[in-house]
Amino acid sequence: MFTHLHLHTEYSLLDGLSRIPQLMDRVKELGQKAVALTDHGALYGAIDFYLEAEKRGLEPIIGVEAYVAPGSRLSRDPREKSPYHLTLLARNERGYKNLITLVTKANLEGYYYKPRMDRELLEQHSEGIIALSGCPSSELHRYLLDGRWDDAVALARWGREVFDRYYLEIQNHPNMDDQRTANQGIFRLAKELDLPLVATNDSHYTFREDAETHDILLCIGTNATVGEENRMRLSDDSYYVKSEAEMRALFPDLPESIDNTWKIAELCDLKLDFDRHHLPETRVPPGMTPESYLEKLTYEGMARRYPDAPEEVRERIAWELRVIRDTGFVNYVHVVREVADFARSQGIAMGVRGSAAASAVLYCLGVTQIDPIATRLVFERFLHPHRGEPPDVDFDFADDRRDEVIRWAAGRYGHDRVAQIITFGTLGAKAAIRDTGRALGMSYSDTDRVARLVPSSLNMTIDRALEESPELRSAYELDGQVKQLVETARKLE
User: Fold this and answer.
1) Among residues 119, 322, 323, 421, which is most buried (max CB within 10 A)?
2) Are 3 and 261 in contact (CB under 8 A)?
3) Quick one: pLDDT at residue 361?
4) DSSP-derived secondary structure letter, 80
């Protein structure tokens, strides 16, 4: 049984082409039972990958193709702009947490052109991690190609001592003479040190026919054109998700290197729990619980907001408190209250958007300023007793003082427990056409002329544009260059 253990998705930004749902469909179609995620230096796709794999009955293996500094991660030596690669896989929950720590510190402490970790970090956070020696950009390959045999031996011994398991990774891509030379050294290492071999395919796209599109993506990412001679490119069209038969054909004399991929998959047992909400406990006065403290603050606020509260108001607030308690979001409401209290105490202009305005509890706590009962707003839009999803309070702060709120939150709840949420930009219809045209070497005016034919409607796609724009359809059908541009952009969209 073969398992892909070196695989990039679209979260290897502008380098990986495989979109996770379609990738999982292909792995399932090939009859494989497990698959690993090893995006470059990041875990952006980990949760989507995990959920999509589970949905299809596949065993997800969360990993990363790490960037490793030649020396210290803290060094900013210009000679160290190209860190080594190392394949790391989470064996269990401990390993997954260590991967998160490693990637975080690589970004916060080791970022120099790339987010880099170093041997010191790897030794501190190796528990639960399986390491593969890496691709042709690895430290091991470099030593073997430079004839530094003793250093290669020392590195392999270090890997065996540090990680839960350490495998010598071999690949066999055509037109890669250095790879084949390094493989000979790896075979010798495996024999002399009694280390297991594992075969991988450096998958950057899902199907072989995606190779040309992936090349365009690389051009977009490196600001190059396809016609340039000395640009970054993959050696051939072999960097796709291969079948077990194709992988065994690459290593006919080393069947154990294929079998070991499944042995690694069997070693990996990561279970992620999405049923529990990880919320900070609020600080409450002695003798009180978060629930009783929330009730106390709410009724004190009710006395201010509704001095002669009728029974309707009392019932509404009691109902909301009960729903908040039963759904497990008491601490969430405390967090929201504390953030709002801080902003107002510091005179930071603040507004609250969305369904939060429907909560009388938040109104009594001073978080919102609109009376939801007088304005007949429905609380269940904010939090429904049977929905189970977290409520959502959207704050807007004065843009020149927003950082004060973030710093306060980090100090209040812990710097390791406050994060900003990333947003990934994707290629929409017009952007895909413009970027593709530049990568293909087309003139700006020709590319812009085609992009302008795409209607400026919300969520516009190239398929829709071809249906709704007669001018675009005509250019597509009559001009071969435009057709190539649109077809390629459609694959990258």
Assistant:
1) 323
2) yes
3) 97
4) G
Inform me whether the pLDDT recorded for 307 exceeds 80.
yes
> Is there a contact between 400 and 432 (Cβ–Cβ < 8 Å)?
no
Cβ count near 62 (within 10 Å): 25
Question: How far is Cα 186 from Cα 369, in angstroms, rounded to an integer?
Answer: 68
Q: CB–CB of 128/96 below 8 Å?
A: yes
Q: Which DSSP symbol is given to 370?
A: S
Which residues lie below 8 Å from residue 427, measured CB to CB, with a gap of 6+?
435, 489, 492, 493
**Per DSSP, which regions of 29-153 are E strands?**
34-40, 59-68, 84-90, 116-117, 129-132
Which residues lie closer than 8 Å to 198 by C-beta, 6 or more apart?
Answer: 5, 132, 167, 168, 169, 170, 257, 260, 261, 264
What tens digit of pLDDT does each residue of 71-103 get? 999 999 988 889 999 999 999 999 999 999 999
Distance CA 357, CA 364 (A): 11
**Distance, CA of 351 to chain centre:** 30
Residue 132 phi, psi dihedral angles, 5° rounding? -110, 140
Q: Which of 66, 105, 60, 98 is nearest to 83 (CA)?
A: 66
What confidence tens digit (pLDDT) does each residue in 184-234 have?
999 999 999 999 999 999 999 999 999 999 999 999 999 999 989 889 899
The pLDDT, as a whole number, for residue 8 is 98
Residues 6+ apart with CB under 8 A from 229: none
* 3-class secondary structure, 199: strand
Dist. CA 94–CA 175, nearest whole Å: 39
Please give the Cα distance from 250 to 267 (Å, whole number): 24
Residue with tokens 């430290």: 139
Residues in the chain: 493
